[in-house]
């Protein structure tokens, strides 16, 4: 569990991506500023960012995003590993989700399991996407795109 040394907020990939949009959501940018030293990303989010970069054609946009990922994200956010505890939680989540007849992306359920294992709040734009995990596994969830967060 979160020993107090880890940040409280685990940012989903869509939050990290919002920062470099042409017109980012002001509410999200404000929250990032408010919690700047209390945020981290999952190693799975790191994978999604690097994978997204690798898929881009060579050019100015790829160069700019690469600079953002390696100079800003990697230097600014601790990267939380997927642990044995998270793997066990992930197995339970996948089993319960499949049993209910639903299917969620594998990486998303791993990110949720990481948040639960480390007692962190998962920050995502896709809060409805994670609602079943929130209900069944006490995932702490915030959507900084909504007014009430």
Structural class: alpha/beta
Biggest pleated-sheet summary: 5 strands, parallel
Fraction in helix: 40-55%
| Shape label | globular
Summary, kept brief:
The protein has helices at residues 13-18, 26-34, 43-55, 60-76, 84-99, 106-117, 131-137; strands spanning 9-11, 39-42, 79-80, 121-123, 140-142.
Structure report:
Strand 4, helix 7 and strand 5 form a beta-alpha-beta unit. By secondary structure, this protein is α/β, with parallel strands linked by helices. Helices cover 54% and strands 10% of the residues. The model has no long low-confidence stretch (mean pLDDT 93). The two termini are 24 Å apart. Helix 3 runs antiparallel to helix 4 and helix 5 crosses helix 6. The longest helix is centred in the middle third of the chain and has 17 residues. A 5-stranded parallel β-sheet has the order 3-2-1-4-5. The relative contact order is 0.19.
Entry keywords:
149 residues, alpha/beta, five-stranded parallel beta sheet
Spell out the blueprint of helices and strands.
Elements lengths: L8 E3 L1 H6 L7 H9 L4 E4 H13 L4 H17 L2 E2 L3 H16 L6 H12 L3 E3 L7 H7 L2 E3 L7
Parallel strand pairs: 1-2, 1-4, 2-3, 4-5
Helix pairs in contact: 3-4, 5-6
């Amino acid at each position: 569990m979160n020993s107090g040394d880890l940040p409280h907020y685990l940012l989903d990939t869509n939050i990290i991506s919002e920062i470099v949009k042409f017109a980012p959501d002001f509410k999200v940018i404000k929250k990032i500023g408010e919690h700047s030293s209390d945020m981290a990303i999952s190693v799975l989010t790191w994978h999604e960012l690097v994978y997204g970069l690798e898929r881009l054609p060579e050019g100015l946009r790829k160069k700019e995003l690469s600079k953002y990922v390696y100079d800003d994200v990697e230097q600014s956010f601790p990267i939380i590993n997927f642990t044995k505890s998270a793997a066990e939680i992930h197995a339970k989540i996948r089993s319960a989700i499949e049993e209910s007849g639903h299917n969620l992306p594998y990486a998303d359920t791993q990110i949720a399991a990481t948040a639960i294992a480390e007692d962190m709040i998962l920050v995502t734009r896709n809060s409805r996407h994670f609602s079943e995990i929130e209900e069944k596994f006490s995932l702490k969830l915030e959507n900084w795109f909504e007014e009430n967060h």
